[in-house]
Amino acid sequence: MQVLTSVILAVFAGYVGAWYFGIVDGNFALLLFLATVVTGIYWLAERFYFLPQRQKAAADLEVNALKRAEELGKLGIAKVDSDVSEAKNKILAQPWWLDWTAGLFPVIIGVFILRSFLFEPFKIPSGSMIPTLLVGDLILVNKFHYGLRLPVLNTKITEGTPPQRGDVMVFRYPPQPSLDYIKRVVGVPGDEVAYLNKRLTINGKPLATNALPEFFDEDVMHYFPQYEEILGDKPHRLLNDPARPAYVLGASEFEFKNNCSYSVEGVVCKVPQGHYFMMGDNRDNSADSRYWGFVPDKNIVGKAFFVWMNFSSLKRIGSFN
Predict the structure, then answer these.
(1) Residue 270 φ/ψ, nearest 5 degrees
(2) What share of the chain is helix, strand, coil (3-state, %, to 5)?
(3) Which family is this protein grouped under (predicted)?
(4) How many domains does the chain have?
(5) Model pTM?
(6) Which of the listed residues 87, 112, 137 is the one where a domain comes to its end?
(7) What is the pLDDT of residues 210-262, one digit of tens each?
């Protein structure tokens, strides 16, 4: 078992190393699932086989020590060292290969359940959601709001609440599902979304916007026009860069692209059933549905709702719209 366990641990370590150095596209959900299964098997084996075997061996040691003391007593030898507690403790102790498998199972399965069905942490890597979310924000994502999904397969097993316009959603990036993206839901199935001359219109109705004080982006040391937009039932802030053109440059080929029409003014798209149109709040610095298409329901990960830490600014902690 020591050799087998060493091989299994080496495979896990090799996969993590290859992921870290970019040799393979890592899948943390799959890695966590496999770790849960493997450590769970070891935990069951420890509970129902290895531990009883060690307990039996410790009991046999104790019995044999007593028999030996009795036999020596019959020979007139009264002073016998029959203390086998140290040896008994060594027999009962878990070997290293069980410490690193069965011993970790309670922690791993706790993380697996929490991450798969309740809340998952993410780190904001880019500025596409500025000013709502900043680079370095550590956020929590509700995994059950849109319905529970099986880990790894991402198959929905409960309905939950359908995504609403204005939700900040984490999803699997359609061109490369191994990557997680975060954007705001702008269009739901059946909507006609128009983003023309940097003005958002849903089903023919322009969204109300109010000018706010300029936003200073510390990463680029520049001020940008900032607005408040009401999408859904709650307002949120957005940025526009007047130096960037309104037209969409470099849109890729994607499924249902014939639902969209591009012009020098921007883009108009009809959202197909079972799909969503996503945009970043940093409108001129966001690669979103305008460029790579619609997000299918099967790609949904969860609803982002809380910044739990930003090491550069503790004031960032709190909920957001």
Answers:
(1) -100, 120
(2) 35, 30, 35
(3) Belongs to the peptidase S26 family.
(4) 2
(5) 0.87
(6) 112
(7) 999 999 988 888 999 999 999 988 899 999 999 899 999 999 999 999 999 99
